[in-house]
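Figure S4 source data
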Amino acid sequence: MDFRELHSLVEVMEKGSISAAAASIGISQPAVSKHIAKLERELGIKIFARGQKCSNLTVEGEVLYKFARKTIAQLADIKRDFSDIADDVSGIVKIGASSIPGDFILPRLLTEFRKEYSNIEVNVRISDSREAIEKLVTRECDFSVTGQSRHASGFTTVPFARDELVLLVGKDHPFARQPRATLRDLENLDLVGRVSGSSTARIWEDAFKAHTGKGKHVYLKFGHVNAVIEAVKGGAEGAVISRLAGQGRSEEGLVMIPFRPSLARTFFLTYGTMTTKAMETLLQFLLERRSTDDEE
């Protein structure tokens, strides 16, 4: 019997199924099943009542589940105690972020955090929203900040920051003199955009389809918003980007045009179980500084 097997049992009970437990832990469903089978074999018991769902324990399973919960809680306490031994909280926290919050929201916040907690190391890995969430599920990062509101079982998601999508064109483009753009204005533009997995691309493409009844194909796509902006600077007809990414670009011959109606969107902070004091400290810091118009 080891900690991983006990952890799997607790997750199965708390999440209600082997599949949800596997997603929460970041391992395969067969691995969770093997952990349960090994516990039963080593202890000579049946954990779950025959023919019943995973939520129905035998008498022996109930005793083992209580023991497992207590053991995991004690281990979490030990980890927190170790991180508190030093005068200051210390440790490493890893954040997975999509490009807009990773490039334009988190840097200033984390610089402020660094001034208050100099012994906590924070690593930010920037990717698209889909990959950032995947790395959270597989425990390659501790938090994620993305445009995705949906998450796997076992994680909490809260609104974190607001943003708006705008049309970016060169200063000599006919649209540059318009105060507003509509989704139908995009119909005949040869746009550049983001690759699949980007929340920016998903939001405007879904809105365009809902408004016009048809899809909009983008033939030139990049993995990062900076490349999209450079393409427009280089002569591409236009792109739909985050207002945050386009700020300060007027001196580069670029113009941002807001949509009517507005294409507003929210970035979300997603996190699982906090296992260290450093993680708890950064999470609390970020939650206190989230800025949304519709905090939940």
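Figure S5 source data
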Amino acid sequence: MTGSPRARALARELRAARKSTGMSMRRLGERLGWSESKVSRIELAQHQLSETDLSSVLVILGVTGAEREKLLRLARDLDQPAWWELGLDLSPQLTALLDAEQRATRITQFSLVVLPGLLQTRGYTRALFSAYGVPPEQMDRYIELSQLRQGILHKEEPVSYDLYVDESALWRPIGGPRVMIEQLKHLLRAAEAADIRIRAIPNAIGAYAGLLGAFMLVDFVYDRPTVHLEQRCAIGILDAPDDVAVFVETTEHLRELALGESDSRRLIKNYVRQYEQRQPPE
């Protein structure tokens, strides 16, 4: 499916892989017996490669091992149902975020006041979107979009995901006790996966750099890292090395401050117990 978000994600990875070798589009085309314009169309997601042709490109670019398999799998998934079939009018910024998540090898996320979309239950997402004023006729489609995003954590080779979450996101009763019990238990189950690490920043820390706002740091196979700043009406995307370096430094700061994974699980379980005590009888 040319022009789709997944197609553009694959195209960007191929362009980054080519540039990492110093090879020009003309030279790559010559090696493959293609015109330079065909290579250009491929890198603009205007021409869909067969798996055989993609394999040939990867051989010439020297892409092997896990990186090669990741790109081949991305190509195989081009026609799988995803967000563009939900009938939603998505902004270019949101589409760019979804693209980035699809081709990421590692995501480091910091959540300040609400839990991240990649780990939200349907009930938690519904409560948030209701508060945000999402029209009822679009609610189910936006919730489905949120669930589709989470697929990157459950595919055959899932993205490596590190979540740093401020304790305030655990005690804020989004949707009430019943929704929060389900949500926090979902966090605990997610934390059992080998590729997911959840660490809490306790309230006792006081002031720290993360209080300036939530963010997502995304690493790729070949492309340079990007930072995504998600707000209610807009998503900011930073890719300049100096800008990204600020958030890499903040991530190191969070790593030093956060509770360990075991202590974080104990904190989450403690909140589950508190919500269970507050839950009204059925």
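The chain has two domains: 5-76, 89-278. The mean pLDDT is 88.
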